[in-house]
Design a protein that fits this description.
This protein is of the alpha/beta class and 303 residues long. It is 35% helix and 24% strand. Bound molecules: adenosine-5'-diphosphate. Belongs to the carbohydrate kinase PfkB family. Ribokinase subfamily. Belongs to the carbohydrate kinase pfkB family.
Length: 303
């Protein structure tokens, strides 16, 4: 099974001709509110990809929370939610004509995801894969990693949004998944540093590393072995919002099905599956609505 611990937000998505520069006002061409948040999106992506998923999350006491809970439950997720005093997290997302996006997040209730219960820690310890991101207090991420390491739960950290991660934490996780920008930030290198050198810095912490490269696919590496490049699939991208989340959730589901999840070959195979899921997702609008099912990914890969 897969346990996702992370954020849930209501995403307010504005379609714009171009993303406003500082001081600029632009008119929206369209607006929609979607349930989102990296944890929520990854939990749904893992469930649609066929995994048995539990989702540990903090929601507010508001209608956004009810909407998120209803969607997660509807996706077959075992929802382990707590209701916080703060409002449910929210995000404002601009999507331009080329499908590029720009995002502001208000953490809200997500900042109150602290003090994991004994039952939650047991769920983590008995899972095949634990999936974490950085929209949750870092002390909670660390407590979850400790519970996972007490057994052989594989820990996947999607170090997003971009930010610092204690080196000690990187040394304890099994698989780090980051985009190029997050990889550069974590490696302490400028943006534009080659992905192979970023990968070698990051695998230096002892974990496997997957750097996603948008339309250029992904680079997969484990300490001491040559990295493997997985090409992206050529598709007409309409909205790349949540591409990384679709990728991480599908990756976790594939990893949970693999027998030897620490092997480079198993990581490459899970990356190929996740690449197909993400390629389907970027062709459709929205983060969650665009996440494909296992059936859709299989058909797409056979075609
Ligand atoms: P993030 O959304 O976190 O910035 P990326 O942009 O690297 O992450 O995208 C994650 C994955 O989604 C990529 O590794 C790739 O498989 C897929 N993807 C993203 N953009 C495209 C695209 N334009 N065409 C095909 N696949 C894409």
């Amino acid at each position: 099974s897969v346990v996702v611990l992370g954020s849930a937000n209501l995403d307010l998505v504005y379609e714009v001709d171009r993303i406003p520069a500082p001081g600029e006002t632009v008119l929206s061409r369209g607006f929609e509110a979607f349930p989102g948040g990296k944890g929520n999106n990854q939990a749904i992506a893992a469930a649609r990809a066929g995994a048995d998923v539990s989702f540990i999350v903090a929601l507010g006491r508001d209608s956004a929370a009810d909407r998120l809970a209803e969607q997660a439950t509807g996706a077959g997720i075992h929802l382990l939610d707590r209701r916080a005093g703060a409002p449910t997290g929210s995000a404002i997302i601009f999507v331009d004509r080329r499908g590029e996006n720009s995002i502001v997040v208000n953490s809200g209730a997500n900042a109150e995801l602290v003090d994991l219960t004994a039952a939650e820690l047991r769920d983590i310890a008995s899972a095949g894969v634990l999936v974490l991101q950085l929209e949750t207090p870092i002390a909670t991420v660390e407590a979850a990693v400790r519970a996972a390491k007490a057994t052989d739960t594989a820990v996947v950290l999607n170090a997003a949004p971009s930010g610092a991660v204690p080196a000690e934490l990187l040394g304890q996780i099994d698989i780090l998944v980051v985009n190029e920008h997050e990889a550069a930030e974590l490696a302490g290198e400028p943006d534009g540093t080659g992905e192979r050198s970023l990968l070698s810095v990051l695998t230096g912490h002892g974990c496997a590393v997957i750097i996603t490269l948008g339309a250029d696919g992904a680079l997969v590496g484990v300490p001491g072995e040559s990295p493997v490049r997985v090409a992206a699939l050529k598709v007409d991208a309409k909205d790349t919002t949540g591409a990384g989340d679709a990728f991480v959730g599908a990756f976790a589901a594939a990893l949970d099905r693999a027998e030897r999840s620490a092997d480079l070959s198993a990581l490459v195979e899970a990356t190929e599956f996740a690449t197909a899921a993400a390629a389907l997702a970027v062709q459709r609008k929205g983060a969650v609505p665009s996440i494909p099912t296992l059936e859709e990914v299989r058909k797409f890969r056979e075609a």
